[in-house]
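Hey, resending since the last one bounced:
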Amino acid sequence: MFKTVLFPIDQSRETREAADVVTNVVQKYGSRLVLLSVVEEPPPDALSADPMVSPEVVAKLLETAQSLFSGQGIQSEVLERQGKPAFTICDVADEIGADLIIMGCRGLGLTEEGADDSVTTRVINLSPCPVLIVP
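The structure tokens again:
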């Protein structure tokens, strides 16, 4: 049913919690797992790059995630992209033929403004495939 699962990752607690669901789905369906890290392009007027999104930090994050799944007997592929997170996640899902995107929910509050700015909300609205949000 879910031949290819896309799991966008970052350093959040929600991503770590969603990893258990990813493991269960991938093992149950024998899915191909693709891990994606999206580094948002800094605004042109930014004085310095954010050290939390340096290439070294992203590489370590992907390596750690791949090791976590490998420890569960799951082989995974890793992709690193630069761009607007929601659009990039959806573009990659389309590019790899993902059957499911699994991601953690990082709430920005209950205001309409917060909901509009949420990467999760944008992915749900733009995704070419079903999206499983782990609360």
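Strands lie at 4-8, 32-39, 76-82, 100-104, 131-134.

Sorry for the duplicate.
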